[in-house]
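Fresh eyes needed here. I'd like your take on this protein's tokenised backbone:
***
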Amino acid sequence: MYFENELKTRRLKVTPQRMAILKEIDIYGHISIEELYEKIRVYYPSTSLATIYKNITLLCDSGILREIKAPGYKQKYELNQSKHAHVMCDKCGKLEDIHIDCVALQTHCMQTSGYNLHSVSAIFMGTCPACQALSH
């Protein structure tokens, strides 16, 4: 129901495909278009990759979703909720939220650079605990 209200608030048509996209992203947290396509096809076999791309673009443009870009990796998408940064494993590609004080970070960057910043997008790269354990 939450997603239905989000779509209606932004004057977007509530379609089964959009609801399925939002549900899958809610379940997985961060997901690429290709991963999302494979999951949506289970429920809606006739859905094309182009339909997924079109809906992801629309949901990002409307502010419901946010695109996460890490250098050297495919974009992933998440629900656009509270401001946060990300940690990403450079071995396995796992992407997770990390809740740090993004407002303080943004304020510090504005004071240091003189820029008037309107958003924060930070990805800290490293090796996750599981991959660290494998290398020992």
Observations:
- The mean pLDDT is 92.
- The chain has six helices and five strands.
- The longest strand covers residues 85-89.
